Automatic annotation (TrEMBL):
Domain Carrier positions: 1016-1089
GO molecular function: ligase activity; phosphopantetheine binding
Name this protein carries in UniProt: Long-chain-fatty-acid--CoA ligase
Lineage, top ranks: Bacteria, Pseudomonadati, Myxococcota, Myxococcia, Myxococcales
Keyword Phosphoprotein on entry: yes
Coiled-coil ranges from the UniProt annotation: none
Record keyword Cell membrane present: no
NCBIfam families: AA-adenyl-dom
GO biological process: amino acid activation for nonribosomal peptide biosynthetic process; secondary metabolite biosynthetic process
PROSITE patterns with a match to the protein in the record: AMP_BINDING, CARRIER
Length: 1089
């Protein structure tokens, strides 16, 4: 809490020239203000209006009746002989002295007022715990103090202060004081304790009170404030804050352990910490050297921590000022503190010294404009309103430095008792205090959002950061460490201990040849009625290889393969590798333009295809081999294995993936990459492949997993019949008929399989792998119901890291909607890094980087792109070791599992809020009628982005767009609810089965009315709401979609609308309903339901 003493401390640290400039500015500001004295009000003026600060808490009590969020709690441990009657008399005298403690609140003509009782008898509640054992006594004391702290106050009924004395033994007791913040602040607790000491001493000696009479009371201050803080004074201060806080991001994206609830509950908990004397002294020394206060240095450190946790550069942090500039206010009990927003600007990766300089400038100007109540600032800025978080800021920093006073009671030894908070006013509050032994502090956190482990880690990171700051404040803040050495060891080493043996000096075709020799008669390929054994497949591939060598194919030569899913497709792939070449798969379903680009970019030496596809290519005949029409010629080649030409470091295949610019890019995959990827499957999946159903197009690397995993284990590779994508509605029949044991597909395809299947249809399955898309939790639940005999796995991996990099076994219902992608596979290392290549803490999102044997050779003919995405591994001592930057956002959980959070480039901002569409999709898919969900952004035609949800729904459930919007409103903050819901039979798909986002229809759900429909077409209820708006805020709504807060409404006026509307509609509604439905349209729709 900042006081005048802070400013004096700061001035004493400045140079003479700086001090003169600051004093000149402060003097000019003081002359502008010319505050009149506060005088005792005349009798007969009761009831008194609320102070501006009280108005905010009164409003909160109306919005959240029964909430204990603003209960102020303190406790004193007392040892010695206590006179309970004297203690109670002392407390009563304090009540008599301070009108604030005898104040309740009511409304007169719809406006809140203070009602001051001339007297109020207090009762000291005494609870005797002395008969319990030490252990039981301690537990019961904690339970009772937490229960007392949670007990709400009714502002219309006094007293708003409760005192409880817990007797722990003959000479031990605890005094607990609980008050509503509207009548008492942190400074007031010190006043209360000081007066209690004086009064107890006097009364225990039989003397009267020695305290001087109070010249004014809190109500006098409230009246004075109303008179002074208006007109030019109000405008000058308000103008400053509007300039200072405009265009600020509405929400800090802290890494929560749980999703933010729709309505804030203010449930809280506390975590305590200490900084040693050496570090505390070093922080003080740095403050003096930088000509700042300790508060500013700690605030700058806190903002740096939040920046590193959120990757945001605009960091608003709330703080409080005592707001007792006049000497006569220092002895009063009451609610004086005001909230200021300190906006930290950490763009351009500044040094900490630069951050500190910015914080100092911000704080000094903020102190000059500290009198205006926070609520006035909120109303002027009109931020997006939400019941799920605090406006303008969600984290607070406080340095407790209220005046210390010697506090003693005769015959008693006193000490403060730490009571962990059971409420949290904000997402996170960091409070620190200077003590002779060093800085102490505690985190008050919202327990709906954070868990204790997360806060303990954050506390450790703050200490690590502060130690780095005092050692090198000139360093860029990105280079200041957060992690402790044990954390770095865990993240970089322990969770990457994946080294395992694999046949690194061979190629996949040689492993296949050995398998064909072991099981020559076993069925290798099956499509419809066609079956080929291992010997026959190997011989055909050998014949293709000998032909290709005749055509000059060897290491370094690229061979195009454009075939439908068929046995020839597999034979061609093996034949190219046996020849020593590199195959380039080309899906015949691709547009001609894409195929032409791939052919030109790869400059293939030969193209393997079928006659019906030949016309799609303009290559000369000598470069084209038709495996059907030319087979009689090919079959004259030797069926024996050709002598090896390619080595492990040569390329096995080049697969083209979609580029962000729309131009495909070829990923170069070596034989060692492929052998590593396949052998890792042998090691991880203990269930051998007996029959694998290949659903992927061979132009996607997911096909690589099934083909080579199966054919190197002697399994049967089943190829669906027909051209193009298989009929997804009948896949369960294929699985049952062909007795498929292993399946790999994207989650949305597997969802369709289970939608149509009965348990007996899937009884042959032993291993099911989903990959390529986020796996929804309900898919896992459905799998356990329908195909529980099979084990389900969730894989993750980019093409650039050879098919898969992490895997997670899903044998139970996931604890979160976002299913983990698991841990790294063999010989693979995963690093989650920030934008400056620094490892991020557990729970903090960063870009996922992949290292190890799966990292490929980069992109074909794209040197600059390869260098940008394949970077040196800074955590490896091996020469040439590289990391692939995936562009995917992920974070570690405390147990080392990895959570995929979407593409970095798919994160969007809507009205300043950073939104992850994947989270919204996962939530919408929890609705029983939603089979699949995709959320994208569209332009509204006026340059603004809006969210649109496309949903594949079960028509049998008759879900409407309105119902799904209501579902979203119940579970998501308002800013992340899509503005339109488009219901489809099914979502459009790409050849690999993924959703084709570009093919989603442009049309959106039709509105029942145009936003500017003439008022004559409005319903009676809509006109009633509009009339109430006009009578309350003086504004006539022009549209059903006008937002109450955007057209001039505020928190106080919405209460007046609520009171009148409740009488008009005759329904039991809550005031929070008006916040959730701030337009005439949405409110009328809600009320009509």
């Amino acid at each position: 809490m900042t006081t005048k003493r802070d400013n004096q401390d700061l001035l004493s640290s400045l140079s003479p020239a700086q001090r003169a400039m600051v004093l000149k500015a402060l003097k000019e500001e003081a002359l502008k203000a010319q505050k009149p004295p506060i005088v005792h009000r005349a009798t007969g003026l009761d009831p008194v209006p609320l102070s501006l600060a009280q108005s905010r808490l009164w409003l909160f009590s109306q919005l959240r009746p029964g909430s204990p969020a603003y209960n102020e709690v303190s406790a004193l441990r007392m040892e010695g002989s206590l006179d309970v009657r004297v203690l109670e008399r002392s407390i009563q005298e304090i009540m008599n002295r301070h009108e604030a403690l005898r104040t309740t609140f009511s409304t007169v003509e719809g406006k809140p007022v203070q009602v001051i009782s001339p007297s109020h008898a207090t009762t000291l509640q005494v609870v005797n715990l002395s008969g319990l054992s030490e252990h039981m006594r301690s537990a019961e004391l904690q339970r009772l103090t937490e229960e007392e702290a949670r007990k709400p106050f009714d502002l219309t009924q006094g007293p708003l202060l409760r005192t409880t004395l817990f007797l722990l033994g003959e000479q031990r007791s605890v005094l607990m004081v609980t008050a509503h913040h509207i009548v008492l602040d942190g400074w007031s607790i010190g006043v209360f304790q000081r007066e209690l000491a004086e009064l107890y001493k006097a009364f225990s000696q039989g003397s009267p009170s020695s305290l001087d009479a109070l010249p004014i009371q809190y109500a006098d201050y409230a009246l004075w404030q109303k008179q002074w803080l208006r007109d030019d004074v109000l405008k000058r201060q308000l103008d400053y804050w509007v300039r200072q806080l405009s265009d600020m991001p509405p929400l800090l994206q802290l890494p929560f352990a749980q999703p933010r609830p729709e309505t804030e509950t203010f449930a809280g908990a506390t975590e305590y910490f200490k900084l040693d004397k050496q570090l505390s002294d070093a922080l003080a020394a740095l403050s003096r050297k930088a000509n700042t206060s300790l508060f500013m240095t700690l605030l700058a450190g806190f903002q740096t921590l939040i920046h590193r946790y959120t990757n945001q550069t605009d960091i608003p942090v709330g703080t409080v000022v005592a707001n007792r500039e006049q000497p006569e206010l220092e002895q009063l009990i009451g609610f004086f503190v005001n909230t200021l927003v300190m906006r930290g600007r950490l763009h351009d990766n500044p040094s900490f010294n630069q951050v500190l300089e910015r914080v100092r400038d911000t704080a000094l100007t903020a102190y000059e404009h500290q009198e205006i109540p926070f609520d006035h600032v909120v109303e002027a800025l009109q931020p997006e309103r939400s019941l799920s978080y605090n406006p303008l800021f969600q984290v607070m920093f406080i340095l407790q430095n209220t005046p210390e006073h010697a506090f003693a009671l005769p015959g008693l030894t006193l000490s403060s008792l730490q009571l962990g908070s059971v409420t949290a006013k904000y997402d996170l509050t960091l409070s620190m205090e200077e003590t002779p032994r060093g800085l102490t502090g505690h985190w008050e956190y919202n327990s709906d959002l954070f868990d204790a482990a997360t806060i303990r880690r954050m506390s450790g990171h703050l200490e690590t950061l502060l130690r780095a700051i005092v050692q090198a404040p000139e360093k860029p803040i990105s280079e200041l460490p957060l992690l402790t050495e044990p954390e770095k060891q865990q993240l970089l080493v322990e969770w990457n201990q994946t080294d395992a043996h694999f046949p690194r000096d061979t190629c996949i075709q040689h492993i296949f040849e050995a398998q064909a020799e072991r099981t020559p008669e076993a069925i290798a390929l099956e499509q419809g009625e066609q079956r080929l054994g291992y010997r026959e497949v190997n011989q055909r591939a050998n014949q293709v290889a000998h032909l290709l060598r005749e055509r000059g194919v060897g290491p370094g030569a690229l061979v195009g393969v454009c075939l439908q899913r068929s046995v020839d497709m597999v034979v061609a792939m093996l034949g190219v590798m046996k020849a020593g070449g590199t195959y380039v798969p080309m899906d015949p379903s691709y547009p001609a333009q894409r195929l032409s680009y791939m052919l030109e970019d790869s400059n293939v030496a030969v193209l393997l295809t079928h006659s019906q596809l030949r016309s799609r290519f303009s290559l000369d005949d000598e470069k084209v081999v038709r495996l059907d029409a030319d087979w009689s010629d090919i079959s004259r080649r030797s069926p024996t294995n050709p002598a090896p030409l390619a080595g492990p470091g040569d390329l096995a295949y080049v697969i083209y993936t979609s580029g962000s610019t729309g131009t495909p890019k070829g990923v170069r995959v070596s034989h060692r990459n492929l052998v590593h990827s396949t052998s890792a499957r042998w090691a991880y999946y203990r269930e051998p492949v007996t029959s694998f159903l290949l659903l992927s197009s061979f132009a996607f690397d997911s096909s690589v997993a099934g083909i080579y995993w199966t054919l190197t284990q002697g399994g049967r590779l089943i190829l669906p019949e027909g051209e193009g994508a298989p009929d997804l509605s009948k896949l369960h029949e294929v699985i049952s008929t062909r007795q498929v044991s292993h399946l790999l597909c994207i989650p949305s395809v597997y969802s369709l399989v289970m939608q149509n299947a009965q348990p007996h249809d899937l009884s042959s399955l032993r291993t099911v792998i989903v990959a390529g898309e986020p796996c929804p939790a309900q898919l896992v639940e459905r799998h356990l119901e329908v195909a529980g005999s099979a084990t389900l796995y969730n894989e993750y991996g980019p093409t650039e890291a050879t098919v898969w990099s992490t895997v997670h076994k899903l044998d139970a219902k996931p604890p979160r909607a976002n299913v983990s992608i698991g841990r790294p596979i063999a010989n693979t290392r995963i690093y989650i890094l920030d934008a400056h290549q620094q490892p991020v803490p557990v729970g903090v999102p960063g870009e996922l980087h992949v290292g190890g044997e799966g990292v490929t050779h980069g992109y074909l003919h794209r040197r600059e792109l390869t260098e940008a995405r394949f970077i040196p591994n800074p955590f490896s001592g091996r020469m040439g070791d590289r990391l692939y930057k995936t562009g995917d956002l992920a974070r570690y959980s405390p147990d080392g599992l990895i959570e995929f959070m979407g593409r970095i480039d798919e994160q969007v901002k809507i009205r300043g809020y950073r939104i992850e569409p994947g989270e919204i999709e996962a939530l919408l898919q929890q609705h029983p009628a939603v089979l699949e969900a995709v959320v994208i952004t569209r332009d509204d035609g006026q340059g603004n982005k809006r969210l649109v949800a496309y949903l594949a729904v079960d028509r049998a459930r008759n879900a409407s767009a309105s119902e799904l919007r209501d579902f979203a409103l119940e579970h998501l903050p308002g800013f992340s609810v899509p503005s339109a819901f488009v219901l489809l039979e099914q979502l459009p798909r790409l050849p690999n089965g993924k959703v084709d986002r570009k093919a989603l229809p442009a049309q959106e759900e039709p509105r029942e009315e145009n936003a500017n429909t003439a008022t004559s077409d409005w319903s009676d209820l809509q006109r009633t709401i509009a009339t109430l708006w006009k009578e309350t805020i003086g504004v006539q709504a022009a549209s059903l979609d006008d937002n109450f807060f955007k057209v001039g409404g505020d928190s106080l006026s919405i209460i007046r609308v609520f009171n009148r509307l409740r009488d008009v509609v005759g329904k039991n509604i809550a005031i929070t309903d008006l916040f959730k439905h701030p337009t005439i349209r949405t409110l009328s729709e809600f009320l009509e339901k």
